[in-house]
Amino acid sequence: MYTAFGGRDETALRRLLAPDVEWIQCAGFPGGAHRRGVESVLEGVLHGNNARWQDFRVEHDEFVVAGATVVVIGSYSGTHAETRKTMRAVFTHVYEVEDGQVRRFRQFCDTWPMVQAMSPA
């Protein structure tokens, strides 16, 4: 999943995401929303992050698997496209997987570093 997002591989993402995937980003995340469906995730998440951030990266530090639930701890980094300020924000992702596809995604993130990078002051 992270390789597909990082490589902007929409074909792989379409295989990995359930057609009716529920994608929940935390309040305060730039462009964040509660999305449903692959097209909404591709447009809002993949294309949205790449438009807002240059060199947007996701680093995963730890995976915890409990049955059909996968928890990933890591961080985002990048340079804001307008302000040119850099950020690094920690996150936790919670995936619910069924038949090899993500059915539900929940994001928990410290968005303050992102907000600071987006601020012109």
Roughly what percent helix?
25-40%
User: What is the H/E string?
Assistant: HHEEHEEEEH
End-to-end distance? 35 Å
Return the average pLDDT rounded to an integer: 93
Low-confidence sequence ranges? none
Structural class: alpha+beta
* CATH C-level: Alpha Beta
* Counted beta strands: 6
Largest sheet: 6 strands, mixed
Q: How much β-strand is present in the residues?
A: over 45%
Q: Major sheet: order of its strands?
A: 2-1-6-5-4-3
For the record, the count of structural domains works out to 1
CA radius of gyration: 14 Å
Could you say what the CATH architecture is? Roll
CATH topology name = Nuclear Transport Factor 2, Chain: A
Please, how many helices?
4
Which overall shape is indicated by the principal axes computed on the Cα atoms?
globular
